[in-house]
Design a protein that fits this description.
- This protein is of the alpha/beta class and 357 residues long.
- The protein folds into 2 domains: 147 residues, D-Maltodextrin-Binding Protein, domain 2; 143 residues, 3-Layer(aba) Sandwich (D-Maltodextrin-Binding Protein, domain 2), CATH 3.40.190.
- It is 46% helix and 14% strand.
- The protein contains 15 helices and 9 strands.
- Strands 1, 2, 3, 4, 5, 6, 7, 8 and 9 form a 9-stranded mixed sheet that branches.
- Helix 6 crosses helix 7.
- The protein is globular.
- It binds fe (ii) ion.
- The site of fe (ii) ion has 2 residues, from loops.
């Protein structure tokens, strides 16, 4: 037996390796053909700017129910919109999940969403909470309410958003910055209800009533009311519910010092905004994306929204979290949420001119 030289050995091994590699490729090819015959493993790719624990439960529940894998990339809204725009046709994203109709409208305006039709979504999501052409759908709702210090204010002292500009609240009002989309959408709704001139006069009055320059988020405003830094504040419902249900006794006590006013009950109703999603323009898995949206309107998913994040279900007949339900039924502004988006630029200008930091 003659041993091969090292060089020949290397060659031989190289040849063997190549053979192995080819065999593997051939096997892969066969496997691929097999897979093409069987249904391909499905997936849906989500870009999300919601950072709620509830969402992980929703993704897991969908995967379990459908076998469709959910891949999520989290980021800030404007970054995700920019990313979608930059990726264009090569984007792996199927869905953009975002908070506030104003932001979904921005995505639509940037051309990164496509209109979709779904009988399920059109039947289950109220018209006010979805974009009329199907560019996005609201999946949970939140009201922007007035809260007050129960020791200093009577719930009958104010009834409308318009009252926040009343000089009697001078130095007593707490509200976050105009850079916040929730406030931009609220002002957008006031532009729709009262016209731009009245909305601007209102914003000026509001700024004069500030107890301090805007700082922090909604929870900070609630805590400041409890601490006596101001007497009234504006907050989304779920923040107060979160504090009321807090495992931290001190936080709970703060939340219990404040009362809730659902504004404009005698006229258009309280400003309600949504958290929702739209199918991206170049979605590679459009059917799976619609399936996921439809899943989010099932009783199971709507309950997760309600229980885990204290949001209002958008689908009829699903109860809110008991902490939220305890505030009672209220009248909601029926204005289509897309209008907040359309009025966003004007709302920003109005707040800017009014000196709302
Ligand atoms: Fe929020």
């Amino acid at each position: 037996m003659v041993f091969p030289t090292r060089r020949a050995f290397t060659k031989l091994v190289g040849g063997m390796m190549m053979g192995t590699a080819l065999l593997t490729l051939a096997a892969c090819g066969e496997k691929k053909e097999e897979q093409a015959a069987a249904p391909a493993p499905q997936e849906v790719n989500i870009y999300s700017s919601r950072h709620y624990d509830a969402d992980k439960l929703l993704f897991a529940a969908f995967e379990e129910k459908t076998g469709i894998l959910v891949n999520v990339i989290e980021g800030k809204d404007d970054e995700l919109i920019e990313r979608l725009r930059a990726e264009g046709q090569n984007s792996p994203a199927d869905l953009l999940l975002a908070v506030d109709a104003g932001r979904l409208w921005r995505a639509q305006d940037a051309g990164v969403l496509q209109p979709v039709r779904s009988d399920v979504l059109e039947k289950k999501v109220p018209a006010a909470y979805r974009e009329p052409e199907g560019h996005w759908f609201g999946l949970s709702a939140r009201a922007r309410i007035i809260i007050y210090n129960k020791e200093k204010v009577q719930p009958t002292d104010l009834a409308r958003y318009e009252d926040l500009a009343d000089p009697k609240w001078q130095g007593r009002l707490l509200i976050r910055s105009s850079t916040n989309i929730y406030n931009q959408s609220l002002v957008g709704s006031i532009v729709a209800a009262d016209g731009p001139e009245q909305a601007e006069a209102w914003a000026q009055g509001v700024v004069k009533n500030f107890a301090r320059p805007p700082q922090g988020g909604d929870i900070d405003q609630i805590k400041a009311v409890a601490a006596g830094e101001g007497d009234i504040a504006v907050s989304n419902t779920y923040y107060l519910a979160r504090l009321l249900n807090s495992s931290n006794d001190a936080e709970k006590a703060e939340a219990e010092k404040v009362g809730v006013i659902f504004p404009n009950q005698g006229d258009r109703g309280a400003h309600v905004n949504i958290s929702g999603a739209g199918v991206t323009k170049h979605a590679p898995h459009k059917d799976a994306a619609i399936k996921f949206l439809e899943f989010l309107t099932t009783a199971e998913a709507q309950q997760i929204f309600a229980e885990a994040n204290y949001e209002f279900p958008v689908v009829d007949g699903i109860p809110a979290h008991p902490v939220v339900a305890a505030w009672g039924d209220f009248k909601r502004d029926s204005l289509n949420a897309a209008v907040y988006g359309r009025n966003n630029a004007e709302a920003l200008k109005i707040m800017d001119r009014a000196g709302w930091k």
